[in-house]
Specification:
alpha+beta; 4 helices
C-alpha cells in the first residue's frame, strides 16, 4: 500500500470517528425552544445518515462501507466538480463517469436512514430541566 493510499484510509477512518463522536456528544445537549429542538433533530439525522451502510462500486466490484468513509474516496477520484454525475442503477448513486475512473457511491441508504431518524424519537433533544425556585 502506498503512502497516499494509507493517507486516504486515515482520512476515511478519522471522518467516521468524528461523526460517531459528534453523535455521542449530541446526546448530552439539553435544549429549550422549538427551533433549537428542530435544528438538533435535523443535525442528528444527518449524522446518522452519514453512518448508513452503502456500496462503493468501481472497477473492483462493490464494497460495503459507511457513507462518510466513501466521501473522501469519491473526492480523491474526482478531478473536478463538473465530473460528478448522478445515476439510477436501481439505487440513486453519485459518482464519476468513465473519464474520472468510474466510481459510484449509492446514496439511497443514506437518504432512507435520514428519513427514518427524523421519524424516530431517538433524534429528539432532551429538554432543559427547570430550576426549582426557593
Amino acid at each position: 500500500m502506498s503512502q497516499h493510499d494509507a493517507q486516504m484510509l486515515a482520512i476515511a477512518g478519522a471522518s467516521l470517528a468524528a461523526v460517531i463522536a459528534a453523535m455521542y456528544l449530541m446526546r448530552f445537549i439539553r435544549i429549550d425552544g422549538a427551533f433549537g429542538r428542530s435544528a438538533y433533530r435535523v443535525v442528528f439525522s444527518v449524522l446518522a445518515g452519514l453512518l448508513a451502510p452503502t456500496l462503493v462500486v468501481g472497477g473492483h466490484g462493490a464494497l460495503p462501507a459507511p457513507f462518510i468513509a466513501c466521501l473522501p474516496l469519491l473526492a480523491h477520484n474526482t478531478t473536478s466538480i463538473a465530473a460528478l454525475e448522478l445515476a439510477g442503477y436501481g439505487l440513486l448513486a453519485i459518482g464519476t463517469g468513465i473519464g474520472g475512473g468510474e466510481m459510484w457511491v449509492f446514496t439511497l441508504p443514506t437518504l432512507l436512514v435520514f428519513a427514518l431518524m427524523m421519524a424516530l424519537p431517538w433524534s429528539r433533544a432532551k429538554r432543559r430541566r427547570s430550576r426549582a425556585r426557593g
